[in-house]
Q: What sequence folds into this?
């Protein structure tokens, strides 16, 4: 007769035959027990007081008396909806789109298996909000968000004007534009849209002029200027500026960038033209007025060579070059299986080392930080 021991992974205690028999009996009892009750669908139809079916109404489900949404569906083109509910009592809230001009409604005390619900929405009082955004170039829209999360967007026309009807209420209003850089301009306080209203956006802009020259003082065309993101408060607005994009320099080496007045924008860089990915960081003071900044770009030197005497089976070996200037850039040239490397650097003085970037223990091989002067 074979003796079988069962070990629990966590503490390696031996389970005796008597204990194992109890476990098996419990399993048999569980197999004979009734399965957990499945959710039961509740159906319904949403119409207006005129009998018109209302499509795209969000149907929110809450535990009775609670405010945390636990489920959501929406009505179809005929105003019908189906929501599956477990056992218990629930509240349902019906949120029409803001442009449908219907009021919110709710049904409480709904249980699984309830009779089909006939939900009637009353007409909501609506207003018209319109306004103008100076210098918008028709590239943005005004986003109007209700406290319950419903959203309405109104596109700017070529003259920077927008207009829309909306259910009366208080809303979070944001202007979103996307010229050479993205910008969100949001009213800090909820906006009172309980009456017809003209709501203009008046955000002051300053111009940053970046002039890029080479080491001889000649203008550099097609250098790419880009920057980071900042968020700040100005008057009634919270402004987020600079999520992405950038601008190229013209034939005179100039890039002109509109920036919200009062912004301190981080992480300005100039990427040199051509196949190289080299860039030069620079700083810009707070844009309280028009500013001009000059950036000098060193000549680009192509560097290549071969490192001998290393194990070709090693992984991640390469040369690390650190530009020997304040805030200098660092470039890493990976070796191929023959020990060859190739890449571009700005002309100047560098400290370099042969690194194992990715090999076990990230060790430093051979000569640490030798110096080299690179010129054309």
A:
């Amino acid at each position: 007769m074979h003796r079988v021991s069962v070990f629990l992974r966590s503490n390696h205690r031996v389970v005796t035959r008597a204990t194992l028999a109890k476990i098996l009996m419990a399993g048999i009892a569980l197999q004979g027990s009734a399965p957990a009750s499945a959710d039961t669908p509740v159906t319904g139809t949403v119409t207006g007081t005129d009998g018109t079916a209302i499509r795209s109404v969000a149907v929110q489900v809450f535990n009775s008396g609670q405010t945390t949404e636990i489920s959501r569906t929406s009505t179809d083109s005929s105003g019908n909806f189906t929501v599956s509910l477990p056992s218990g009592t629930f509240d349902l809230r019906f949120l029409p789109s803001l442009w449908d001009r219907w009021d919110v409604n709710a049904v409480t005390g709904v249980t699984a298996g309830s009779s089909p619900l006939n939900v009637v929405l009353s007409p909501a009082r609506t207003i018209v909000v319109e306004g103008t955004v100076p210098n918008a170039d028709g590239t943005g829209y005004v986003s109007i968000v209700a406290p319950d999360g419903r959203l309405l967007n109104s596109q700017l026309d070529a003259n920077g004007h927008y207009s829309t009807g909306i259910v009366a209420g208080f809303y979070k209003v944001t202007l979103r534009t996307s010229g050479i850089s993205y910008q969100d301009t949001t009213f800090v306080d909820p906006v009172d849209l309980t009456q017809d209203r003209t709501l203009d956006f008046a955000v002051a802009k300053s111009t940053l002029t970046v002039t890029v020259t080479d080491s001889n003082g000649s203008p550099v065309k097609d250098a790419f200027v880009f920057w980071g993101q900042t968020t700040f408060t100005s008057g009634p607005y919270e402004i987020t500026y600079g999520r992405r994009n950038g601008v190229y320099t013209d034939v005179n080496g100039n890039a002109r960038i509109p920036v919200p007045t009062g912004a301190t924008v981080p992480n300005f860089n100039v990427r040199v033209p051509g196949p190289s990915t080299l860039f030069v960081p620079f700083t810009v003071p707070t844009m309280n007025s028009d500013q001009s900044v000059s950036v000098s770009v060193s000549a680009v030197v192509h560097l290549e060579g071969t490192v001998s005497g290393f194990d070709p089976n090693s992984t991640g070996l390469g040369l690390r070059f650190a530009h020997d200037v304040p805030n200098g850039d660092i470039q890493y040239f990976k070796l191929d299986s023959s020990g060859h490397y190739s890449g571009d650097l700005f002309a100047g003085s560098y400290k370099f080392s042969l690194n194992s970037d990715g090999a076990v223990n990230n060790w430093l091989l051979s000569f640490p930080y030798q110096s080299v002067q690179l010129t054309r």
